[in-house]
Automatic annotation (TrEMBL):
Name this polypeptide is given: Metallophosphoesterase family protein
Annotated source species: Dyella mobilis
Gene3D superfamilies with a match to the protein in the record: 3.60.21.10
Listed InterPro entries: Calcineurin-like_PHP, Metallo-depent_PP-like, Pantetheine_PDE
Boundaries of every Calcineurin-like phosphoesterase domain copy: 1-220
Length: 257
């Protein structure tokens, strides 16, 4: 079984939907796809995208991204309600949101959000970041509380799927550490760093024993080893980003078991 990964498909855009539809219906029937969030904030497009990918891959593993939890166009009560709706849609279509094992390989989805462990948001970010308007949380909940709610639901090392696993790949939508971002990022774009993720994810993936971690969200494709873990970002991104995103599946690993 080959393991592929992609994130940030953003199927709100017609060219992105066309890319999914052109993927072979035969070439990946024995393979697994890690889908690291941000399919669409529209449940209809998210459903269509998951169904299309499940027709192409034997196994699809998924965690929701921030766009997937927007509620400003869906009429849902809050983003937790949206999370449960997204989870139910995915589960009912055979998409894995929980750990999966094949032979000696275990793949573990990790939920997350951002808690400003990468920095404090400035006025520009507070005004520009759509999550602050498109997401809705229960009264009194801040982003740190939201992050804790998600990460507390992630698997621990005692998870049965991790028993006898010789290789563990974890994945999340959000960044587990800020130094996966390359040094070349201009200072003006670093204003976004506070909303990229949380260090709690890196603590969790290392406790699980992961040797590889896939993430999305930043739209900055990356393959870098840090302190014994290989971090991979393969964001598809918006049509306007075609000049700097790979816009293809990345092959992570092959498990023969």
């Amino acid at each position: 079984m080959r393991i592929f990964a992609v994130s940030d498909l953003h199927l709100d855009y017609a060219p992105n939907r066309a890319w999914v539809e052109q993927l072979s219906l035969q070439d990946y029937q024995g393979d697994a796809l890690i889908l690291a969030g941000d399919i669409s904030d529209r449940l209809s497009l998210l459903t269509d995208g998951l169904e299309a990918l499940k027709r192409r891959f034997a196994v699809v593993l998924y965690v929701p991204g921030n766009h997937d939890l927007w509620v400003h166009r869906e009429g849902l009560g809050d983003s937790f309600e949206k999370f449960h709706a997204v989870r139910d849609i995915a589960s009912s279509r055979g998409i894995h949101l929980t750990p999966f094992r094949h032979g000696g390989l275990a793949i573990v989805p990790l939920l997350g959000w951002y808690d400003y462990s990468f920095g404090i948001p400035g006025d520009y970010l507070k005004n520009a970041w759509t999550d602050y308007r498109a997401c809705r949380w229960p009264e009194g909940w801040d982003d740190a509380a939201v992050t804790r709610w998600f990460v507390e639901r992630n698997p621990t090392r005692s998870c049965p799927e991790l028993e006898r696993a010789s290789k563990i790949i974890t994945f999340s939508h959000f960044l587990p550490r800020i130094d996966v971002m390359p040094e070349r990022i201009p200072e003006k774009h670093r204003q976004l760093y506070p909303i990229l993720g949380t260090t709690l994810l890196d603590e969790q993936l290392r406790e699980l024993g992961a040797s590889m971690h896939v993430y999305g969200h930043s739209h900055v494709n990356r393959h870098v080893a840090i302190d014994g873990v290989t971090y991979v970002n393969n964001a598809f991104g918006y049509p306007s980003e075609a000049h700097h995103t790979a816009r293809q599946l990345v092959h992570l690993y092959t498990e023969d078991g």
